[in-house]
Backbone:
């Protein structure tokens, strides 16, 4: 019997069935989210690096343009001071200082040791002093650098270049990169926001899509659980939009389940037949054993005093012992047929065997009308002893279970590549349910005398020869048994 499982999987119920991190759905969703996250991180890093490179290149280009312009003038610090005075005369006012630097650009004039210079009343601002301090004691080194130098002025990042003047002083030109960093920070925040939004959207869509794709697998689990509980007819239903691999798995699983069901039904049927066979065999053997035991008890108690009574008891015990012997021999014959013994095939005149069986029946029951249709010779490639046993059992069945005046017809014909032997009588026949079991071993029709060993042997011999047996009957219309055998190499 199939052992029942303690639980049954049902779609949509319970926790952790197909919805946990370790489930297939969770693993696929996690894999998609991780892959997209890696893609977003890489894309963000590449875009930020490209933006930084582009903006820094613009700042450096502007610094180089200013440096080239100042170098082309060939001015000295004194000439710059004179130009500052001219600007004072033109504007008509004196600034208290050089003023705060531009938000993006910062200028400072330093001597050879890096100290900021004062022009008339314009003193260096704190940012200019901080720029000079950040450059250091060797500002001439900036004039020879191919790329601007990164410095920090009052907590802000700048890129600075040096422009040498004719008198040995150096003009420091610095461009702020704060806007660049702020823009990159905003871009990073924007990328992170949309990246997280995309990851959440992908996770939801993946869960929905994978759930729909995995629904056939959940149906398979549910079907397997139902079969484990005893519903052998359960099959995996087809989904509306199946994938090729899942559909192949469904068809293979349904085919396997059909074979499992067939094997289980066959085993149950075989077990029932075995139980019925043991019961029938016990019943058949119990009858003669009971008769023999009864006569022995009569003899043991001294109740068989007359010689005639003792002889009759002896004859009855001998007859019952012979009956048990025949039952055992027939059982051995069936066992050998089940083991597919090696048959001795040779050309056999089947027409002669049919005529011999009819003559035996006439000799045993002279008053029974017997009709034979087996003229000439019909050779088949078969085992002669097996064919004689088939005909003998069929004739014995007619002789035992029909009245002595019922007509019997034995016929033989060749149709195509097969030969048919038919033994038909006009006796009481069998009911439909009895005809279906006529080849069962020890079967008794309607509880009457006689077992089905003879018909079982007929079927076993026919199957061993590669043939088959057919029975046509109805109550009151007689019984017709047809044995079909391959003609083999035989001929007329």
Residues:
């Amino acid at each position: 019997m199939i052992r029942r499982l303690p639980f049954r999987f049902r779609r949509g119920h319970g926790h952790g069935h197909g919805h946990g991190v370790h489930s297939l759905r969770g693993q696929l969703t996690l894999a998609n989210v991780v892959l997209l996250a890696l893609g977003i991180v890489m894309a963000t890093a590449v875009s930020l690096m490209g933006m930084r490179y582009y903006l820094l290149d613009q700042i450096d280009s502007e610094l180089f343009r200013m440096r080239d312009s100042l170098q082309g003038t060939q001015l000295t610090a004194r000439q710059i001071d004179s130009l500052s005075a001219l600007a004072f005369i033109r504007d008509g006012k004196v600034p208290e200082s050089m003023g705060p630097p531009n938000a993006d650009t910062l200028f400072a004039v330093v001597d050879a040791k890096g100290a900021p210079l004062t022009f008339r009343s314009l003193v260096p601002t704190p940012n200019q002093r901080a720029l000079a301090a950040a450059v250091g004691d060797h500002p001439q080194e900036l004039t020879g650098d191919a790329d601007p130098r990164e410095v920090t002025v009052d907590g802000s990042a700048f890129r600075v270049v040096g422009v040498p003047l004719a008198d040995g002083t150096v003009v420091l030109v610095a461009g702020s990169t704060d806007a660049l960093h702020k823009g990159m920070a905003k871009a990073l925040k924007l990328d992170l926001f949309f990246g997280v939004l995309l990851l959440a959207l992908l996770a939801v869509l993946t869960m929905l899509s994978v759930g729909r794709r995995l629904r056939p697998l959940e149906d398979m689990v549910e079907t397997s659980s139902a079969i484990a509980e005893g519903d052998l007819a359960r099959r995996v239903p087809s989904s509306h939009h199946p994938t090729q691999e899942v559909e192949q798995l469904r068809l293979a699983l349904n085919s396997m389940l059909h074979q499992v069901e067939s094997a289980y039904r066959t085993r149950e049927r075989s077990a029932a037949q075995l139980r019925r066979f043991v019961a029938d065999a016990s019943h058949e053997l119990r009858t003669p054993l009971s008769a023999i035991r009864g006569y022995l008890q009569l003899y043991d108690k001294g109740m068989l005093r007359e010689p005639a009574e003792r002889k009759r008891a002896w004859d009855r015990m001998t007859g019952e012992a012979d009956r048990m012997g025949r039952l055992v021999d027939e059982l051995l014959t069936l066992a050998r047929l089940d083991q597919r013994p090696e048959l001795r095939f040779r050309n056999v005149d089947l027409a002669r065997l049919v005529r011999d069986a009819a003559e035996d029946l006439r000799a045993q029951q002279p008053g029974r009308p017997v009709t034979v249709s087996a003229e000439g010779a019909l050779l088949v490639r078969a085992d002669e002893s097996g064919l004689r046993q088939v005909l003998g059992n069929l004739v014995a069945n007619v002789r035992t279970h029909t009245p002595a005046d019922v007509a019997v017809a034995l016929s033989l014909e060749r149709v195509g590549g097969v030969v048919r032997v038919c033994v038909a009588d006009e006796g009481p026949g069998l009911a439909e349910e009895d005809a279906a079991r006529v080849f069962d071993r020890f079967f008794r029709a309607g509880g009457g005398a006689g077992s089905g060993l003879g018909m079982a042997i007929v079927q076993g011999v026919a199957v061993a020869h590669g043939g088959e047996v057919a029975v046509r009957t109805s109550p009151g219309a007689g019984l017709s048994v047809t044995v079909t055998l391959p003609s083999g190499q035989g001929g007329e």
Remarks:
- The chain has twelve helices and eleven strands.
- The longest strand covers residues 156-164.
